[in-house]
Amino acid sequence: MREKLVAGNWKMNGNLKESVSLLNALVTDISTIGSNTSYAVCVPYPYLAVAQSTLKNTTIKWGAQNVSQHESGAFTGEVSAIMLNDFECTYVIVGHSERRMLFGESNQVVAEKYLAAQKAGLVPILCVGETLEQRDSDITEQVIYEQLNTVMTVAGVDSFRNAVIAYEPVWAIGTGKTATPQQAQDIHHFIRQSIVKQNAEVASGLTILYGGSVKANNAAELFAMPDIDGGLIGGASLIAEEFIAICSAISS
Ligand SMILES: O=C(CO)COP(=O)(O)O
Fold it and tell me: Among the options 96, 130, 188, 242, which is catalytic?
């Protein structure tokens, strides 16, 4: 059985006080739900230390939202995978569409970040997804295949044994427009089949998350689809009750 996962992506939100209180609320509330699923929060870098101290010895894992493709050196403002290890991160998000679009990260750079994360023992959560324009031009599968294939070329298909993929249609992020469960399932199936062609065993064990306006009231129907193994949650992960409700939608 492949791992199910619900991960929060806090993005650039909150301050220290709010982060501490959200983490504490999650720790209290998570104990009320079943545990056949993994849970995680990807917090801003400055709050990794407090995530580490608050979540250690709980069932909630933690991670970062970005990582440098370089090991060390003159890269002002960047954070390496080795540094993330100091905070005992399990996960790091790579290739989020906001990084691709706002910070110009190409498929190649994303693949190098993915590889750097894995080399340091972190589990990359590789985000893929199409814009509305690309969907309307009927090139969704082509776009996603290129995103995946660059990673397979740089890191190999076996690398997906220790990675998670998140399908996040750009048009559904922060817009309140969720992909329908069938639209999401179709792309999840396409992603899994793209990996099956290289290695069926790796593909069947691969956790593929859906992200994009997942809320407590639409999570269960998305998570019920056969190739959707959980969610990457943005806005709703900033409210403890909402995030916990989404987590319980997968356990039930
Ligand atoms: O980008 C996302 C998670 O990485 C999704 O964000 P929202 O859940 O706010 O749409």
Answer: 96
